[in-house]
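Below is a concrete protein record.
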Amino acid sequence: MTTVRVRGIYATAVTQRLTENGLDVVQASEPIRERFDDAFATAPALVSIETTRDRQGLEVSGESDAVAAVVDELGSIAIDAFAWDADVPRGAVYDAEVLDAGGGGGAVVDLGGGRRGYLKYDDVNGYVDGGNRYRVQVREPTPPWDDDRPRVVPTLDVGDGLCTLSRDRSGVSAALRGERADELVGMTDLLSADVPDGWGLRWQHGAADADLEAMGDALGRAVDRVRSLEAELDGAPDEPDDPAELATPQRTVWLWFGRESRFALDRVRRAVETTMAGHHRTKAADRAASAAVDFAEAICGSAGTESADGGATVDADFPFDAVARQFGPARGDRLEIDHGKPDGRLISLGRGEVTARDADGSMTVERSMRGGGTYDALDVPKEDGDVAVTKFREGRWWYPTTYKSADGAAKGTYVNVCTPVELFPDCARYVDLYVDVIKRPDGSVAIVDEDELEDAVADGLVAEDLAEKATTVAAAVKRALSK
């Protein structure tokens, strides 16, 4: 059985999706236990699911086959869900060399193969200097759309949410306090598995509900993982050597959810709990929105509103105007254009000022351009004083940018075809689908970069159904611009 531990703003929907498809959610949080009729086991987890810090998607880490089963279920939630294997997965071990030990709280380290990591000074005993070498393990991986580097630590540990075996600890301890902590430490002597030499055991908060059998399973599994990790490292030099990957005991996959994916997760969640239209879309926009969403749903839930499938819901369209008024973006705000790529990268197209916003989810963003080069596909020179006027609409599969000279003369229009646009408080976000439509200053209209979309499909970066959607959208936009 594939056992999964789930945390974060998508937890209810993810739990429902996984359990209804035969996967076993364990170590459930208290809110999840309250929302589901099923009893959730306190057992070791083969896979851990965490919401990314920017709330745009999920980290799925654990045993390779189990991770694959989870990704199969969640990656197919909607047409604009993307999945990428991590280049630097959680738990991986590297020999690292310090590249930059300047100011701040940590150093940039070379992990080999063009990979970089971040080593906090507080995690190291002694002074850190350029050229120092350490054997490190990935403690916090980072998604490909994030500029941060994965955090690494100069020690080793393995864990499954119930217990952790660490090389920088000794003896047995518990992350809890009081009588239950003393019980966990004392009961460890009754377990059949022994803590490996040179490793310390720490029971985590999730073990508070564990019985003796669950504790034994957790420790036994952790010991097996230690043995596997030690076997992978058996051929490594005794001291840290040239930067290189030494062991990858886990697989990490990053799931990125687009707008349609978030609304699909709303529908899944609605079978379990009161869920307003745009629940996940709103929570992904701003941390402060979570409390507001929970309050609104609690009010509607107490009123007994139910959906057609029996789950409670708020029967309304996504209230974009209300959300934007409360959390942004508003007229006068600075909005960044986050141009996602199907390989997971995120490119900023710059920031502009919101000059207009309508209740239907439309807004206009203006950017001042610098001279030099030409505008993509339009073959028109960029000049100082030019202005780019971009019109976004929440949920639309495309957006146009019109370039104007300092005197207001149009230099052409470039329409980007992409996954449905989401207008968050500080950014417009989507994934580019390569194919675009242009309207030149002479009025001629053309579809461009179709070959790039074909290549992306051949490389497995864009699914065929998503490519077909992009092609259909581009054709419709071309017809509209040609009139």
